[in-house]
Amino acid sequence: MPTPARARADACPGVFAPHEAADGPLARVRLPGGTISAVQLRALADAAEACGDGDLHLTSRGNVQLRGVTRPGLAERLTDAGLLPSPSHERVRNVLASPLSGLRGGLADVRGLAASLDLVLCSTPELAALPGRFLFAFDDGRGDIAGEGPDVCWRATGPASGTLLLAGGDTGRRVVRADAVAALAEVALEFGRVRGSAWRVAELDDPAWRGTPVPRTPVEVPVGLIDRDGGFAAGVVPRFGQLSATQARAVAEFGPALVTPWKSLVLPDVPADVFERMGFGGVAWGTTACIGRPGCAKSRADVRADAVFRPGLRAHFSGCERRCGKPSQSHVDVVAEAGGYRIDGRWVPLDEMEGKL
Length: 357
What we know:
The protein is of the alpha+beta class. The chain contains 8 helices and 21 strands.
């Protein structure tokens, strides 16, 4: 596809350059590989209460956002917690990794690769200039992360072997696990040299940046208690991917967590009664939504109030055509319009919507 004309610079939000939303500044905190320690999770909960609206908002790239950040001190709090290792690189630390890797399934254990890549990113000055939308990924062979549209991805083909994907296409370049981090950094450096005004690999015209399309693997989002070798893990899916500070602290009682690109959490090592001890349900899978009104001035409706939850329904409610936060998996597309919603292209009045989903 041709590189689109850019009328403005990439404005992906961070901590030092937040997005001005209708409910106040929005700060995005990058978590390479989705990994967050219990101490860091508590620090985020404290920061949300002290500086923002009191909630942690999980994102479709495995990161966390704080909304309504109108009080000072956020950067200092996050720096003290080790969540801002390089201010100059904070917006380019976009790294996904298969969240169940090393716990259950997969062809290889990709744990630790995201952290290793993060060290390389933060220590390479040229990579600070990457667009904030550029996305790295490590897929353990099950195809869950490769299907999330990363610009460059190492996908395992065996315990120590893998292949390099660019914008979802297999380049045919075989890379052993030990060289995966260096290979992804090399691609990012080359992209920086040739990208022009492009933000994503898919926008480059050069056929050398193409690969053979790889069929997408249906994703089974980790939900509930998960059997793993030697114990249990847990998939926590909060309503709309939103955790109150109190809920975040309850989750932190069970140790480190992994934020997934499906606005959920995986807790790697938990007791069998984790959900009873956590103090809140923890599972609300199916329907997602953008922030809607009043948080976004562009939204036509309070989509979170209108959203429909039903067993088996996978829908995303959007306040406008931008469809912020929509999942990459198959879902019912619900977009607000005057007096109702357009459901997969069909306009439906608000009072008839539940029966049409």
